[in-house]
Amino acid sequence: MKSNIDVSIVIVSMNNYTQLKDCLDSIYSYTQIKYEVIVVAYLFSNENLKKLKNSYKWITIVESNEIRGFSANNNLGLKEASGRYCFVLNDDTYFKTNVVDRLFETIQNLTDAVIVSPKIILPNGLTQYSGIPPIGWIDWIMILFKLKKERKERVPKYIKEVGIFQTYNILGAAFLIETEIFKNVGFFDEAYFFGPEDKALSTLLNRKGYKCYVDANIEITHIGGATGGATSKTVEATRPAERIGSILFYSDGSKFKKFILSLFVFFNSILLSIYWRIKRMKGEQSARYSMKANLNTCISIFSTSSTTEIFKKYYQNL
Questions:
Q1: How far from 131 is each of 16, 124, 135, 171, 192, CA to CA, in Å?
Q2: Which residue in 23, 119, 130, 193 could disulfide with 69, CB within 3.0 to 4.6 Å?
Q3: According to DSSP H, which parts of the chain are helical?
Q4: Contact predicate 318/237, CB 8 Å
Q5: Against a cut of 0.90, is the pTM above it?
Q6: Contacting residues for 99 by C-beta, under 8 A, at least 6 apart
Q7: Is a pLDDT exceeding 70 seen at residue 225?
Q8: Per-residue pLDDT tens for 188-211?
Q9: For the segment 139-193, what is each residue's pLDDT rounded down to a tens digit?
Q10: Which residues of 250-286 are buried (b: 16+ CB within 10 A; e: fewer)?
Q11: CA gap 37, 34 in Å, rounded
């Protein structure tokens, strides 16, 4: 590992040059420490790849031209990282202050921290995430049926709007982690295609006795939904992969929990497909993507296929 690099910034982008450009520009404008940027160009068109290479000669580009999930694509970039710390960053994020420098300073001052995340805000300035508490399988069922909110302050010590505090889960959109420890735990678990690999990582680190922190004084804007959002056709493939991945995570090896979770997800997906069907009948054109996504989930929920295989099945028909 090169000792002269403080932070390796790893970004996965699925042929999303426009938002990636804004993200890279903010890094270049506001980062002073010794850093490198590794962009995993996932399924990039020749045109966008050419623009990326010509406009950003200071970054390292790792081409990913096969179907891979968020975990596997990030791991391609992470294996090239040479910094003492890795900053995993979504391509649909940007910032207007020296975020990377400040996170690096924060983690240096916290002797027991292996991860530090900034406060994640939305483009309208509202907080999206500022710490995430532990979420069990029953919690997740209630979240699916809108009986609980993932971001609600059920455990106030894990969620705060200001200051530096210990949390339990981090959001995969932006977090700084000690590279050696990340490497020792195998980076991201590639069993998860499109979530919840960030919660799986957080849980693994907590179980090993490591601590995750948030510095809520540092803010980063997350646009969100660029690839797998409800208005994107790709959701027809990402939603079933995400739901199967979540069942895998929350069942935690228990066949009983897996069966119960599968039943709840099946019925939840039926209800959602009916809901989006009604929305489509009322003229909301993008509703057809969410309707199909939930129907695909119903079909796949009891499948023994991997999350990657499930994604490929529906993605190839988009």
A1: 27, 19, 12, 8, 21
A2: 193
A3: 17-30, 46-55, 70-78, 99-109, 137-144, 179-184, 197-207, 235-251, 255-281, 287-300, 307-315
A4: yes
A5: yes
A6: 30, 31, 118, 218, 219, 220
A7: no
A8: 999 999 999 999 999 999 999 999
A9: 999 999 988 877 655 567 899 999 999 999 999 999 999 999 999 999 999 999 9
A10: bbeeeeebbebbbebbbebbeebbeebbebbeeeeeb
A11: 10
CA 47 to chain centre: 26
Residue recorded with tokens 């996504």: 293
270 contact partners, CB below 8 Å, separation of at least 6: 294, 298
Provide the residue type at 176 as one letter: L
Write the CA distances from 47 to 44, 59, 61, 94, integer angstroms.
8, 17, 15, 23
The CA-based angle 84-29-124, given to 5 degrees, is 100
Structure token digits, residue 278: 């009604």
